[in-house]
Amino acid sequence: MLDFHVSWRGNSIDAYLFIGMPVRKYGRVPIYTDGAGWYADACRRAGRRFKPAPPPRIVRCDGLTTGSRALDRVLGLGSPSLVVIHGGRGTGKSTILSSAAASYAATCGRSALITVGSWVNPSALSGLPEAALDRLVLIRISDEQSAIAASRALSLIGFGLVALDDASELSGISRSAAPQSYISLSLSRAVHRRGMQALVALSEGPSGARGRDYWWPFADRFVRLERLEGGVRAASADGEALFAIVGGRIGDPPGRARPRPRGRPHMRRATI
Fold first, then answer.
1. Does residue 111 contact residue 163 with C-beta atoms inside 8 Å?
2. Domain ranges in the chain?
3. Between 99 and which of 5, 63, 66, 187 could a Cys-Cys bridge form, CB atoms 3.0 to 4.6 Å apart?
4. Contact 96, 71 (CB under 8 A)
5. Measured distance CA(127)–CA(42) in Å, rounded
6. What is the pLDDT of residues 86-132, one digit of tens each?
7. Is the dihedral of CA 17, 81, 224, 148 positive or negative?
8. CATH topology of domain 69-251
9. Segment 1-51, tens digit of pLDDT
């Protein structure tokens, strides 16, 4: 497997050096890429022709939702993309991921919910039908070997949606950047080749900052969560949405009461 660095420039240089080996062996032949931007950049620098992969087939899933349609639009839910969700503690990152994975398994097909360090809270999956539980795959990453196994599962199993929770903790299970490389590369390839959607949650703090620096070359959309008095605000380049989390479920915030007029009400005199 080709190792990738953190930056876009590093990825392009690695791809440039890698492409040079088959070109020197087989001559000036067309190069087929899997849709990643750094391959196209490397081919342009090398002066080689390249043919991007055909666009992925989009599987329509009308029943997929997190519980709030406004939040679904901000996340771009249902489109082949890699979405990075970041925010502070208590903003509902884990709830969003578990809701999306469970909804896809209940209405569309096979999905995966990946956690780093600890298992999924069983209460997040309560009330799901048996058919949905059969299509929802739970994966726990605790060390470098389990990260390799998870990346192979993402490459071989035809998931339609993958939710990766606590991705910032991947750097803490190994001294090397191998877990980050395995998982991010597998998710990026699945998104570009199979039309899958990936949701990745990053926490705030130093580990979250390092995670954003690493994941931004792969991400198609960043969504920031912020806790407000009336709920949680999700903001991205495509807009923002306000949602509420009640009892571990996502929904629209309750409507605000209409303010009463101050002072004495104005009486209109009728003429007879």
1. yes
2. 8-51, 69-251
3. 66
4. yes
5. 49
6. 988 889 998 999 999 999 998 888 899 998 877 776 666 777 777 78
7. negative
8. Rossmann fold (3.40.50)
9. 344 444 445 566 667 777 777 677 777 666 666 555 666 677 777 676 666
